[in-house]
Amino acid sequence: MPVEIPVEQWPGRVIEETLGATPAEGGTRSRVVKVGGENTLPFMLTDGEMPNPPRIAIEILDQRPKDWSPLLLEAWGDVVDDPAKWAKAAEEAGADLVLLQLSLTRDGGKPTTAADAKALTRAVLQATGLPILVFGPGQVDADNELLVAVAEEAAGERIVLGICEEKNYRTIVAAALANGHLVNGRTAMDVNLAKQLNILIADMGLPLDRIIMDPTTASLGYGIEYGYSVMERLRLAALQGDKMTQLPMLVTPGFEAWRQKEAKVGEGVPASWGDWRQRAVLWETLTATNLILSGADIVVLRHPETVKRVRAFIDRMMAK
Amino acid sequence: MSRYIATRAIRGANAIVAEAEALLQKALAEKGPDTPVAFTNTAYYLPVIYGMLGHPVSKIGDMVPVLEHAKSLLHPPPDEKWWVPYLGETLDCGMATLLAEEIIEGIRFAYGEQPERYPGFRMTGSASFTSPEFEKEEGGGGYLNGPIDDIQLRSWGIQLVDGRMPGFAAIVGAARNNRAAVAIVRELQRRNILVFLCGNVNGRSIIDQLHEEGVEMGYDTYIVPFGRDTIAAIYPLGFATRSALTFGGLKPGQWREILLYNKYRVFAFVLALGEVDDLKYATAAGAISYGFPVIADTVIPQILPTGITRYEHVISMPWEEIEGETDEEKAARLVQKCIEVRGVKVKITEVPIPVPYGSAFEGEVVRKADMRVEFGGRASRAFEYLRMVPMDQVEDGKIEVIGPGFEDVPVGGAMDLGILVEVAGRKMQEDFEPVLERQIHYFINGASGVQHIGQRDIAWIRISKAAAEKGFNLRHFGDILYARFHADFGAIVDKVQVKIITDPALHAEWLQKAREAYDRRNRRLADLTDEAVDTFYSCVLCQSFAPTHCCVISPQRLGLCGAYNWLDCKASYEINPTGPNQPIQKGQCLDPVKGYFTGVNEYVRVASQGTVDQVAMYSIMENPMTACGCFECIVMVIPEANGVMVVSREDPSMTPAGMTFSTLAGMAGGGLQTPGVMGVGKYYLTSPKFLSADGGFKRVVWMSSFLKQTMAEELKAVCEREGDPDLLDKIADETVCTDVEGLLAYLTEKEHPALTMPPIF
Questions:
Q1: Tell me, what CATH number does A64's domain have?
Q2: What residues 119-158 of chain A have any CB closer than 8 A to a CB of chain B?
Q3: What is the pLDDT of residue B249?
């Protein structure tokens, strides 16, 4: 008996955004990466289209991470001492994008300077041909100083600057405006706050196709339901036609999963939790795949094995 | 528009375009059309021409069509006898002037005459990267700045866009004397406003004046000397044009968008010092197209209506007539006026008092034993009164203590105090007075060692011994209020002054005035009915945890949390137009009794993501308003009693519904419409619109005793209004009964009106 599958059509569509610029477009990237553009819920390819699969960014730090799980350090090896090598390794590990996370201080506790930030950005841009994202340390003054320098150094490359928050977005947006970049706007798991920040950023004159929203999320077992629900509602609002929510979403399951003890530590936990290596990668993978199912367009990951698994998941879900 | 100004501007434009034409002819003859023309260190060619016309000028010949365009914008001066509209003509001529001026500067560059030579002049600091090729002579000096380079444009542009720099002042001419020149510039610097200098009066420029006084000029000091003639005013406008191209994402040739970008986003103004000649009027007409108003320190006709600029176009503030003993005082007032006219907002980040300040100290209690002095309470009278006054009656930042301080009051003693806050603002409304006045409580409480209770004329403030020892005195109340009103309410308040009154006679006088104002406000609130307005407000603050709930707040139905009434929402929307309180146009009234409005239904449908289709504003039985979880009270139908009960959050007891408040909360909250159950703010009980579709307050058969006690007076008034003065006694509470049988017995005994009202179902 033939079964007719009901088709749900939505009036709205997520904006398609382009990260990175090739030499023809004024940058030096070997290719651009497009995100967003879907007019249906994730992978509902019978209802609508999803022109771009969810993208994977790998997070690298500007120096050897101090508080990362030994499993991550073991997986990456010595490249963590050199952001340029790390960026190259991330590209080889299968990333679509590289996210450079700047720290507040450099070796010996000296504050990271604008010159450091420029040099780091330049080094990463030279080491990889992928589009990049650069996030500041997350402290207002430092972010504003460093990201303005980063924006200048990467002028024309269409990088993503982060993180814009309601209390501090103006300088970063101005730097993006002046140098042709995108911004990542983060709000604390709330539909209306996310929407409001998008409006505020757009009010400064940054076109919507240069704003990515980061609704913040949580790890598996630590409130992922809440983040999932907020992202789902944002996406439903976007598909229903609410312009100010029609932006691609970026979330950081790598950061979230690896700060929980299930992933981070191998000792002092119940034996019934099973093999640490397996568990840690599973934790990050499941966090990421769940968030992709709730509408994430970019997931920022940490472990190369997770990248492989999430990639396999995306490929299978996208298969016609 | 002033015909005088129009005439002079149009005359000036005709003259400068003719001058540009002559110069261009000469340059074409002497240098030829292929001679390169460029401003230094910019990728924007001649920026005003490039922005307005989309025409890149890179050689002398490229200027020919630009000049033709300028000529086409010229008009004859207005006729002496027959007046026809001349605003458009004047603005056209202003634009023609700018094009001509940029042509002239461009040609001067080609001749090596720009930047302007100024023997003995040296720019401070890192200005050297402007035009390194001009650094060779005279030990690196000898030139004024000329156009700002692109690197500096970006660096300052970011600060202008993100708000760290409020704007720029283009000063044209020369001040009355050197001291006045320095005072004006310092006053601007103090406010982080970029200072651009050009022009002269009878050959003397403000650049000369500052140079003689040893004021450092250059990028590092935010003072840029462009040139000593009026034509150099094209550089600030080039800067403005490039800002729009760089930060507004605009393309060359989008002249309208570029001008609007400047009007709304670049807070610049022209300060004309000294005599204004034809060319200055013409250039000013060009600046006005950018939305930049002109403030002159001489007597010139004013153009006060708004339009091309956001507020006034031209303001005359003759230096001799400015109040003030010294040049510094006059300069402060002049600059303050400029800021008002352009709508530049002041930013204050710190509260300058000798004790720690922050919301963490809000709940602090100062006990009698720790107290240095108190105002209000039993032993003295304190009041606080905030009122709106006209702009020119407020001196921003002025804080006065009128009368003695508390030094002579014995430790632990009391004294009378009055706090009078006077605010002015272009978006200020009298309706916002009580909203702002209520903030005084939170603002003053933020100081460590200071306790504030109450409001209006029942305010009660204590200062601890520790705070007094650290030097906290009466003046600091003013410092706190000034800083916080600017920081938190800058969107509606432009100027704030505070008077702290302890002088007995003045205290009595102002207490009387304050009471009259409170009375006026009370009457205004009573008059403020749902029928009297066409806008309600939404509140979606709680959607973070109740995603489909949306409060609809009307004058007669405040938010269910009790924290937001209609006036609060109105003010909140002015302060934060993208925030959680948005205006809802009532639209068509579909049912005045139940309170159905087309606008409300449409808004709620969207805001609840389609969950709630319609809302009856005045009924609990049919499509009642949803609730988040923050309600002060729960109203629930008791079918047996043909009425409703009201349970307050403070009441932990059992209720006739067989559930306690916390159990009921699960039914009332979460953004669901449950007929018969509703979460409300307690002051909604006193509204004539309380359940008005279902019979009103007479339906209340049971009510937590906490409400009966704390709202005794207000509820008594409601009972009288409802025509049943003894109604409150007929309403049961948890001390009478917590079950339906007991309730019915009590109601019957008291002959409660609900028993004989039409069935509630």
A1: 3.20.20.20
A2: 144, 148, 152
A3: 84
Helices A140-153 & B150-162, crossing angle to 10 degrees?
A: 150
Strand residue runs (E) in B547-692: 551-553, 583-585, 589-591, 596-597, 633-638, 643-648, 677-680
Q: Angle of helix B178-190 relative to helix B327-342, nearest 10 degrees?
A: 50
In a domain? residue B523: no
The whole-angstrom distance between A147's CA and the closest CA on chain B is 12
**B382: domain range?**
359-516
Inter-chain touch B154–A203, beta carbons under 8 Å: no
Residues B558 and B467 both lie in one domain: no
pLDDT bin (cut points 50, 70, 90) of residue B308 is confident
Do B368 and B464 fall within a single domain? yes
Rounded Cα gap, residues A291 and A227, in angstroms:
8
| Rounded average pLDDT over B423-437 | 90
A249: CB partners within 8 A, 6+ apart: A212, A213, A214, A215, A231, A234, A235, A295, A296, A297, A298
**Domain membership flag for residue B354:** no
Q: How far apart are CA B633 and CA B615, in angstroms?
A: 19
Q: Which two tokens stand for residue A282?
A: 């599973």
User: Contact A240/B246, CB-based, under 8 Å?
Assistant: no
Mean pLDDT of B482-493: 90
The answer to whether the Cβ–Cβ distance between B158 and A207 falls below 8 Å is no
Q: Assess if residue A310 is contained within a domain.
A: yes
pTM of the model: 0.80
Q: Is A118 a member of any domain?
A: yes
Q: What is the pLDDT of residue B454?
A: 86
Specify whether B435 is located in the same domain as B327: no
Confidence of residue B729 (pLDDT cuts 50, 70, 90): very high
A111-120 residue pLDDT tens = 999 999 999 9
- Give the structural domain span for A159: 18-318
For residue B317, the number of C-alpha atoms closer than 13 Å in the C-beta half-sphere is 24
B540/A205 Cβ within 8 A:
no
Whether A175 and chain B come into contact, CB under 8 Å, resolves to yes
Confidence of residue B139 (pLDDT cuts 50, 70, 90): very low
Question: Is residue B395 situated within a structural domain?
Answer: yes
Domain count across chain A: 1
pLDDT above 80 for B757: yes
pLDDT at residue B761 greater than cutoff 50: yes
Does residue B499 sit in the same domain as residue B375? yes
Looking at the partner chain, which of A170, A191, A237 has a beta carbon nearest the beta carbon of B162? Answer: A170
Of residues B99, B66, B40, B47, the one with CA closest to residue B245: B47
Kindly tell me if the per-residue pLDDT of B348 is higher than 90.
no
Q: Is the distance from CB of A83 to CB of A115 less than 8 angstroms? A: no
Contact A29, A21 (CB under 8 A): yes
B414 plus B381 within the same structural domain:
yes
Q: What confidence tier does B562 reach under pLDDT thresholds 50, 70, 90?
A: confident
- Return the residue of B nearest to A172 by Cα: B162
Q: Is residue B710 in a domain?
A: yes
Q: State whether residue A190 sits within 8 Å of chain B by CB.
A: yes
Nearest CB neighbour to A205, from listed B247, B580, B609: B247
Which of B247, B541, B547 has its CB closest to that of A174? B247
Tell whether A103 is covered by a domain: yes
The number of domains in chain B is 4
- Asked whether residue B82 carries a pLDDT value surpassing 60, the answer given is yes
Nearest to A159 by CA among A176, A145, A138: A176
Q: Which residues of A touch B163 (CB under 8 A)?
A: 170
